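Quick one:
INPUT:
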């Protein structure tokens, strides 16, 4: 496509659209119909330019023009309780459900890595010696030592808030930096599994693995699931950069990116629940079986939420993206 010829052919239409937009609400019925028609044509022109001969200055001008026309035609839409309810009953669970082919393998592989690291440390005294001096390791693993005291080292409320903040940041980093081919996500996963493996290995070598599992399982099931969901979504976003499928890379990344932002909000709520369990249940005087039962129940409720509500919404076409009215209009793409 000859860009100069294209601009010359449609410059008058864009100028007319800009003129109509400048008049605000002082439009006659015929002018309002003309504005809608020009908006639709200009949106098509923008898509054609972006897909054939992208010119930064012209693309920026038309993008701004289309956005202004869209706001005028559709009107400003204010978010409310309806959007929040829709997000937590359909959007978020559907996004988690749709991305399950990424986060479930991520969870299985990561857990296997953590267990292998734990086994390696537990069965190799020389590795334990590289982690710390015998006196230090004994101080960490003894009854009332570092691993047990960690969960009661601060008031429950402040500890829960600190844990929630740290985990929410880790999940957000996985989601945001996933676009960098997923490499930061792999690093975060490795750090998490390494920490888990060290705890497993050291407590197992001290014959106190049951105590460690009693401390980690109540909150760890839900917490690690949220981290795995974030990591899987981040890896999916990174793969989209490599293989966007039948869509253009820009459209695919925009769609996945919007879903990832929504995922960050939903996972922040999940991690808040996990933080409450870690702050109030894990260090409590409840029997081990009761604390683990609470953790298993929280995990089961989350999975039911994802597979029942999310599965139903996904089968209805929901993918966790914003509503169609809030997306940028695009031309159909051939497969």
């Amino acid at each position: 496509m000859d860009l100069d010829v294209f601009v010359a052919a449609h410059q008058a239409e864009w100028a007319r659209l800009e003129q109509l937009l400048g008049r605000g609400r002082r439009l006659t019925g015929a002018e309002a119909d003309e504005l809608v028609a020009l908006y639709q044509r200009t949106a098509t022109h923008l898509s054609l330019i972006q897909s054939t001969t992208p010119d930064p200055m012209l693309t920026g001008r038309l993008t701004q023009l289309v956005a202004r026309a869209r706001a005028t035609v559709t009107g400003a839409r204010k978010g409310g309780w309806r959007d929040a309810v829709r997000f937590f009953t359909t959007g978020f669970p559907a996004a988690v459900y749709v991305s399950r082919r990424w986060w479930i393998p991520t969870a299985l592989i990561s857990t296997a890595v953590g267990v292998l690291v734990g086994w390696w440390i537990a069965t190799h005294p020389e590795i334990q010696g590289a982690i710390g001096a015998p006196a230090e390791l004994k101080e960490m693993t003894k009854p009332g030592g570092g691993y047990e005291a960690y969960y009661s080292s601060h008031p429950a409320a402040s500890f829960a808030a600190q844990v929630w903040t740290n985990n929410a940041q880790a999940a957000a980093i996985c989601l945001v930096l996933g676009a960098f081919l997923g490499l930061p996500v792999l690093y975060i996963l490795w750090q998490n599994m390494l920490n888990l493996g060290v705890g497993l290995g050291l407590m197992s070598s001290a014959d106190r693995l049951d105590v460690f599992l009693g401390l980690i399982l109540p909150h760890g099931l839900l917490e690690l699931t949220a981290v795995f969901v974030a990591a899987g979504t981040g890896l999916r976003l990174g793969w989209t950069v490599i293989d966007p499928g039948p869509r253009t890379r820009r459209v695919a990344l925009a769609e996945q990116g919007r879903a990832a932002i929504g995922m960050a909000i939903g996972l922040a709520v999940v991690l808040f629940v996990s933080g409450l369990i870690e702050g109030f249940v894990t260090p409590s005087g409840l029997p081990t079986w009761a604390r683990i039962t609470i953790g298993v129940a929280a995990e089961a409720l989350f999975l039911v939420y994802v597979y029942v509500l999310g599965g139903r919404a996904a089968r209805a076409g929901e993918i966790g993206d914003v509503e169609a009215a809030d997306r940028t209009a695009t031309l159909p793409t051939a497969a």
